Structures are given as structure tokens and as C-alpha cells.
Amino acid sequence: MTSDPILSDKKLVHVSRMPIRWGDMDAMGHVNNVTYFRFLEQARIEWYSSIGREHAGSETVVVSCYCHYYAPVVYPGNLEIKTYAGSPGRSSFEIVQEIRRTDAPDVLCALGGSKVVWIDIETGKSMPVPSEVRQLMTP
């Protein structure tokens, strides 16, 4: 856990590492702002995969997301994305993710997050976050 107030009620649940691809950059010579959302998504899906996602008939949907950019990212290199989760309600929870280069781990490149709702696939309606998932994000 870090001392950042936005993470005060969140628990580190997953760490992902991924390469910066040359094609991630734009005409300005740095990683395009939209690509950060793909990095965040990939890390979120890796976390979901690591916990099994064995909840037949249920899924998660992102209902809101954001990204704050602090330092440009350029090719080549590798990223480390730390995923924190918490603030669970009945059917939703918050995810906050830090993006840093592995060769400069003290520099926060971006901070993103999302609010996620657990839904019943058949009805499309929200359902309670499974207790085993809720336990994973309890500090």
C-alpha cells in the first residue's frame, strides 16, 4: 500500500508487466493517451484471470473510468502496472492502477481507475460481488 489518499482503502491485488510497443506511440513521439486505457484494461483482465473468474453466469462491466497522466512514456521499455481494488459495495467496487516504467520505478507515469459492477450475464442486472472476490480486496 502507498501513502496516496486515493489508495487508503484499497489493497494491492495484482502486478502486471508489459512491453511498450513501438506502435503504441503517436506522431508526437510518446505513447498515445488512449493506449494507457488499453494498458489498464490488460492489467485488469490479467488480475481477473489470476483469480479464476470461475463465477459461471456472471461478469463485470466498467461503468466509469479515468486516467491522469504525469510523465510521458516512450518506446522502448517495459511497464509495471499495480492494480489496487477496494471500496466494495453490494455489486460494485473500485480499481485504481499505477503505471510506471520498470527502469524508473519511482516515477509515476499515470494513475488510472475504474468503477466496476458485477452483473448476471443472463439478465444484465447487477448482482452481489462474490464473497471470495470481496475478501481479496479487503485490506
Description:
The protein is an alpha+beta fold and 139 residues long. It contains 2 helices and 5 strands, in the order E-H-E-E-E-E-H. Strands 1-3-4-5-2 form a 5-stranded antiparallel sheet, with helices on one face. The longest helix has 18 residues, at 33-50. The radius of gyration is 16 Å and the shape is elongated. 27% of the residues are buried. The model has no long low-confidence stretch (mean pLDDT 91).
Number of helices: 2
The profile of the biggest β sheet is: 5 strands, antiparallel
Number of strands: 5
Low-confidence blocks of residues? none
Strand content: 35-45%
- The H/E string reads EHEEEEH
The main sheet orders its strands as 1-3-4-5-2
| Structural class computed from helices and strand pairing | alpha+beta
Envelope shape: elongated
Radius of gyration: 16 Å
Q: Mean pLDDT across all residues, rounded?
A: 91
Please report the distance between the alpha carbons of the first and last residues: 9 Å
Assign a percent range to the helix content. 10-25%
